[in-house]
């Protein structure tokens, strides 16, 4: 029955909306037999004409968006009624486990684990039971300090050493070691500071078996990020002693008495050289590894007296064996040959360094070597867990107590305690690492072999949904990172999340993956975008031909190299995938190589071998670029979700920025999520939850699986999102409901701002090189500025002073550039009278100018704007100053009204450009334009900086002109459109810059609104600016021509008064 209420010939919107929603409910009832077919198939966009029909009076854009949000919410409720299956909540799978960072002391008497709430960590320590019927005893809690990094049990079990970063220090480069005393009374303070290192990284290596177990070995990166020095720390008093100053080796190894025995370095050919030494001799070359051997081989331990080195080694065979090597002769004894895969797991005796257990993983993990000392104990455990793999995590020195876990693909971790006393053996369940997961049914991970097109065999893992009546499934190919890493048969929370939403997940160990031998690894060298990519496609083709995957519902996703593979798939197989998710993936192999983290540079030769080339020659750069997704951006037509960490050093944010910029104007559906305080991977739970809410909804839109409803954005999330194509109609919002997240900026912790403490150096009457101080003009974090006069002729001047103690120093750079600009006859710059430096400060004495343009804008007119004649006067003279600077080879990089000032009377029509502290030469000594750097800090002022500068990209001449153009608009209209959208000043500067770049791009997308109140010629200037690239020279003649055209069209003449002249007359 239809209900209609007439009101002036219009049907009431809410009645029609109810009827409309009711029709959706009826339609959904027809979808009962299609369990993979959900909300995405009946998108609100398809129903938009009906919404428009029933809401004829809803003209406001915000109202329309709110209506769409309402419809989505009600619609989701209807779907949840029709399909009653409960989805596993994201938070249960992706939040912190109940027990994480679990470890025991050496004698397996105490156990500790980390509890994380928000960003605060606590260490919970408990006494382990001694009887079968005895539960874990209540323990005590240590609040961990600042940024917790690691903790280790002392060998005697009497204490725990905690490593943490001191966030209270300005440069965050200090690491502290703190001792937690387990023997102290509860009432006493259990913690005491050991020592502090100023270091980029600190690593606890081991406790030494000498000096009554009271010495600890640590590696410290205090002289740079590349090489580590070795220190001994006394656990009794915190004294630290330099044990070895390292100027060569990328890896050092010490025996159990903390005597240096081995060093590893890499030569220019990419070979890793192993050097050994005894207690009295110098280092001697022991052997060398090729690039493929070095990836497949690794040092396990050195025995107590340094005579035997234990390796996983593939030097003499294809797969890695467990070997014992004589440190002097190099003779190797094989302890365990592999069966089908490299030895990957080894448990060593912490008293002797001898391997006790070893295992490998081809399809599934298995222990293949058990030392005779453990044979009886291990057999007992295998009888209790016949179908599982048992991994001991700690075995006491007398082998009587074991703390171990049982591995499963459907359980995140089950932990047990085993002990024996004589002939009696006991087994006690301790805990599940994540109890929340156990109430849901997890799906098994099945191993399969897939033959590639050229005959290699790759092991893949396939996880399918529980519903067996929906095959073929929508499938997501999840590509692992590295690429020289691998997938394992293990519990994977993200895989289980996607499977619960109705997708089959395929994870391939393509050629180049580790664990399957040297030949298989070597086959992937230089194959980025080549046969490694083919292997992934071959595995997907297999899943389709086997009837597992629906060829019309395929997606590809990956992290790091996997993100690159996802991008490359959209280029090489553009019609295969309905969507792709790139997380932290590089888009340009040239810039990836050029921006290599500093700590990787000692191994850059082997890195280049694995990558396929360096970026040192034009030919090699061309080779790498031809294997980069960005080289083929015009082929990409697959919808993309790109996820990136702002602080990523492995794959810098520029890698994602450049592909987004290349695709932004193409009309492609693209979501770009940047997490402002994350690096190479997300670690903060609210960010992880938002990441997978985006991924879920994105996959649902294109593969028609299920998605958990997102009621609110996780509190504390630090995401910033962009969406393309930019939209201004309701239809676009309806098409992808995921856009409801876009242009979201959520702040994390408030960064405490520090006030500038400034005491004036000079007082009235003080003399500096013949100039007398008259008064202070200004002071702040930049330094101090005084008005002075020449004692010889009383001519006024300005003295700029920079304190030696202040943090930022720009005066030296400014002086150098001012002198060069003066020599190049640049117009509109101040004259330098003198300069100097003493212990407390540096100074420049230069021409005294009049008020700056910002001050004049505030004081001349009530609306904060100039008349058009004044705008053009300032515009032409400031452009002349910038043109001259550019001709001299310099960028200003901080163009704004404050940095232009008029002359003093009677020269108030003169204009001076000021403050060159951020200026930079953009040409080399041959006057050739410099190439953009891979990493740049922000330079400029947020309000006037170009969107390019705000994204921390290298600036060029066009960026100065963009800032000049913003200044022109500010002078014309009285403000800029983003004046009320500025990010919080309490955020870090880089985060503010990133947030504002999005706002500026959004505003400039609508030129008519952006340039409202400006002459039409400004639209021509905007088009010219948008057309410019990094290397382009601005067309100054065209810009001058547009300004002159405004003069003529408005019948303005040079003799008309300027605003400040008119104010003075009045």
From TrEMBL:
Matching Pfam families: Peptidase_S9, Pkinase
Gene3D superfamilies with a match to the protein in the record: alpha/beta hydrolase, Transferase(Phosphotransferase) domain 1
Organism this protein belongs to: Trichinella britovi (Parasitic roundworm)
Residue ranges of domain Protein kinase in the record: 771-1047
Keywords, comma-separated and alphabetical: ATP-binding, Membrane, Nucleotide-binding, Transmembrane, Transmembrane helix
Transmembrane parts of this sequence: 65-83
Superkingdom classification of source: Eukaryota
Keyword Hydrolase: no
PANTHER family the record matches: CASEIN KINASE-RELATED
Binding-site list for ATP: 800
Biological processes, Gene Ontology terms: proteolysis
Name used for this protein in its record: Dipeptidyl peptidase family member 6
GO molecular function per UniProt: ATP binding; protein kinase activity; serine-type peptidase activity
InterPro entries membership: AB_hydrolase_fold, CK1_Ser-Thr_kinase, Kinase-like_dom_sf, Peptidase_S9_cat, Prot_kinase_dom, Protein_kinase_ATP_BS
């Amino acid at each position: 029955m239809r209900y209609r209420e007439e009101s002036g010939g219009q049907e009431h919107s809410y009645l029609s909306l109810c009827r409309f929603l009711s029709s959706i409910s009826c339609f959904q009832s027809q979808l009962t037999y299609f369990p993979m077919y959900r909300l995405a198939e009946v998108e609100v966009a398809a129903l938009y004409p009906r919404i428009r029909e029933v809401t004829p009076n809803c003209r406001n854009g915000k109202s329309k968006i709110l209506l769409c949000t309402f419809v989505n919410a009600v619609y989701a409720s209807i779907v949840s009624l029709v399909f009653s299956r409960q989805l596993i909540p994201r938070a249960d799978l992706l939040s912190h486990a109940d027990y994480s960072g679990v470890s025991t002391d050496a004698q397996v008497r105490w156990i500790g684990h980390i509890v994380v709430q928000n960003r605060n960590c606590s260490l919970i320590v408990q006494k382990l039971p001694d009887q079968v019927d005895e539960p874990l005893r209540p323990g005590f809690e240590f609040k961990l300090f600042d940024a917790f990094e690691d903790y280790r049990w002392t060998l005697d079990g009497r204490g725990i050493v905690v490593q943490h970063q001191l966030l209270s220090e300005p440069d965050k480069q200090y690491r502290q070691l703190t001792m937690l005393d387990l023997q102290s009374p509860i009432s006493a303070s259990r913690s005491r500071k050991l020592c502090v290192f100023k270091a980029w990284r600190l690593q606890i290596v081991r406790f030494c078996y000498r000096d009554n177990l009271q010495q600890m070995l640590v590696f410290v990166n205090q002289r740079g990020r590349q090489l580590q020095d070795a220190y001994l720390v006394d656990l009794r008093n915190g004294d630290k002693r330099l044990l070895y100053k390292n100027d060569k080796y990328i890896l050092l190894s010490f025996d159990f008495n903390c005597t240096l025995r081995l060093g590893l370095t890499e030569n220019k050919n990419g070979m890793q050289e192993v050097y050994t030494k005894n207690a009295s001799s110098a280092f001697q070359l022991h052997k060398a590894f090729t690039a493929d051997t070095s990836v497949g081989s690794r040092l396990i331990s050195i025995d107590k007296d340094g005579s035997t080195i234990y390796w996983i080694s593939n030097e003499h065979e294809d797969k890695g064996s467990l070997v014992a090597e004589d440190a002097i002769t190099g003779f190797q004894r094989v302890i365990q040959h592999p069966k089908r895969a490299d030895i990957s797991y080894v448990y060593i005796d912490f008293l002797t360094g001898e391997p006790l257990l070893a295992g490998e993983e081809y399809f599934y993990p298995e222990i293949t070597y058990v030392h005779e000392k453990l044979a009886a104990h291990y057999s007992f455990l295998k009888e209790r867990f016949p179908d599982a793999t048992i991994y001991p995590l700690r075995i006491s020195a007398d082998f009587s107590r074991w703390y171990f876990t049982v591995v499963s693909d459907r359980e995140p971790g089950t932990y047990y305690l085993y002990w024996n006393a004589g002939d009696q053996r006991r087994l006690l369940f301790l805990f599940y690492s994540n109890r929340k997961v156990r109430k849901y049914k997890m799906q098994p991970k099945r191993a399969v072999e897939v033959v590639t097109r050229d005959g290699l065999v790759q092991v893949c893992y396939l996880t399918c949904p529980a519903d067996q009546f929906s095959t073929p499934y929508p499938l997501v190919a999840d590509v692992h990172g590295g690429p020289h890493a691998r997938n394992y048969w293990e519990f994977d929370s993200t895989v289980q999340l996607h499977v619960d939403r109705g997708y089959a997940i395929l994870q391939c160990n393509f050629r180049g993956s580790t664990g399957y031998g040297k030949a298989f690894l070597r086959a992937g060298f230089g194959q980025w975008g080549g046969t490694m990519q083919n292997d992934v496609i071959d595995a997907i083709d297999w899943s389709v031909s086997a009837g597992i995957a629906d060829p019309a519902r395929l997606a590809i996703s990956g992290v790091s190299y996997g993100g690159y593979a996802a991008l490359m798939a959209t280029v090489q197989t553009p019609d295969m995938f309905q969507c792709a998710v790139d997380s932290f993936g590089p888009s340009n192999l040239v810039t990836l190589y050029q921006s290599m983290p500093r700590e990787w540079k000692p191994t850059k030769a082997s890195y280049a071998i694995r990558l396929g080339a360096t970026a040192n020659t034009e030919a090699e750069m061309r080779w790498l670029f031809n294997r980069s997704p960005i080289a083929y951006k015009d082929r990409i037509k697959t919808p993309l979700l790109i996820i990136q960490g702002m602080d990523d050093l492995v794959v810098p944010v520029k890698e994602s920025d450049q592909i987004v910029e290349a695709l932004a104007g193409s009309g492609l559906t693209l979501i770009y999520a940047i997490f402002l305080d994350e690096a190479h991977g997300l670690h903060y739970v609210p960010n992880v939850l938002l990441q997978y809410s985006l991924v879920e909804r994105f996959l649902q839109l294109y593969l028609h699986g299920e998605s958990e409803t997102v009621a609110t954005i996780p509190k504390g999330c630090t995401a910033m999102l962009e969406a393309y194509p930019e939209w201004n109609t309701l239809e676009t919002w309806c098409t992808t409901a995921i856009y409801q997240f876009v242009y979201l900026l959520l702040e994390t912790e408030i960064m405490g701002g520090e006030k500038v403490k400034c005491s004036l150096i000079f007082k009235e009457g003080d003399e500096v090189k013949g100039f007398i101080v008259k008064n202070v003009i200004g002071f702040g974090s930049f330094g101090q500025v005084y008005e002075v006069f020449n004692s010889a002729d009383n001519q006024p001047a300005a003295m700029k002073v920079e304190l030696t103690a202040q943090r930022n120093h720009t005066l030296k750079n400014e002086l150098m550039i001012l002198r060069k600009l003066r020599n190049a006859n640049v117009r509109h710059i101040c004259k330098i009278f003198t300069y100097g430096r003493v212990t407390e400060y540096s100074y420049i004495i230069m021409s005294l100018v009049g008020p700056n343009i910002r001050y004049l804008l505030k004081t001349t007119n009530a609306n904060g704007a100039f008349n058009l004649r004044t705008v053009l006067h300032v515009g032409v003279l400031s452009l002349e100053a910038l043109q001259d600077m550019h001709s001299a080879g310099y960028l200003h990089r901080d163009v704004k009204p404050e940095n232009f000032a008029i002359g003093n009377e009677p020269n108030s029509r003169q204009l001076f450009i000021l403050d060159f502290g951020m200026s930079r030469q953009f040409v080399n000594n041959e006057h050739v334009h410099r190439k953009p750097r891979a990493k740049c800090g922000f330079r400029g002022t947020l309000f006037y900086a170009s969107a390019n500068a705000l994204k921390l990209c290298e600036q060029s001449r066009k960026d100065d002109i963009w800032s000049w153009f913003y200044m022109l608009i500010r002078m014309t209209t009285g403000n800029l459109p983003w004046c009320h959208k500025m990010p919080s000043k309490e955020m870090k500067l880089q985060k503010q810059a990133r947030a504002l770049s999005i706002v500026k791009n959004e505003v400039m997308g609508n030129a008519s609104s952006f340039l409202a109140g400006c002459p039409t010629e400004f639209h021509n200037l905007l088009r010219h600016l948008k057309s410019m690239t990094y290397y382009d020279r601005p067309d100054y003649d065209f810009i001058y021509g547009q300004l002159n055209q405004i003069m003529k069209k408005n019948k303005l003449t040079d003799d008309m008064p300027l605003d400040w002249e008119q104010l003075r007359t009045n």
